[in-house]
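Give me the 3D structure for Phosphate butyryltransferase.
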Amino acid sequence: MFARILSEVLTPSQRIAVAAAHDKPVLEAVFKAKELGVALPILVGDEGKIRRYAEEMGIDLADSPLVHEPNVRKAALYASNLVREGQADLLMKGMLQTAEILRAVLDKEKGLREGSTLSHIAIIEVPSLNRLLLITDAGMNIAPDIKQKADIIRNAVTVARALGVEQPKVAALSALEVVNPDIPSTLDAAILTQMNRRGQIKDCLVDGPFALDNAVNAERAEHKAIRGSEVAGQADILLVPNIETGNAIYKAATCLASFRSAGLVFGAKAPIVLPSRADTPESKFLSILCAARVAAFKAGSNE
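Predicted structure for Phosphate butyryltransferase (303 residues):
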């Protein structure tokens, strides 16, 4: 769970460029990450506000680089370029719209796009499951096609492996557990399952279609006579058919069940911490924690 990830020492700490850092919850999360040795902040934003908030919160800015750029779009470009040039290991959204930071990420000169599909990965701590559950894509790709879904799986698998799941189990969700030609997501699930079996999607086990209950609950999978599947009831990753489904599951888990959560975007040059401005400081911190693990894992894989 998140406690296990935090207990594992991360060396070295990852440098995090924070775009539009003039926000109290963001500063609280970032400096908690610094205190625990997870990340070293580079703050880009309105210097006056950042210093005032830091003083009010008792935060020492002495050894944290601070770049004054009150224009949030320029701050996003500046922070993104720090990552592009190798001066930071990950990027974080501060007090600005998601569209503005994604515009910076996709900028041809200062952005982080590498040609693959970018996707949002929500990470949920479900106490009854005794494991982290990844939901994708709940925030970027609206109605992904087969190629995009395969990329979304690959992105989520990398994140899951960075968080300690060596061979993640991926459940392709739909409304039921059998292929129905009238429900396109069941056809997609079957194709993705076969792609995994043929080695086109690696380092994981993919199966589907599944309804949500029998993807995560072994008893319900058994009750519905779903046998011979290593994924049924044991999924680590939920591949949702569209953004509405993913967003609803994610918001239900965090708003109704109050599960702890983190979120990031993967598929660019570096992980992007992309919290909602309404997220709690804890959720922002957990997002930094997961993104830092992913950045370190990716760097190690490229050596």
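The chain has two domains: 1-114+268-301, 121-257. Let me know if you want a second pass.
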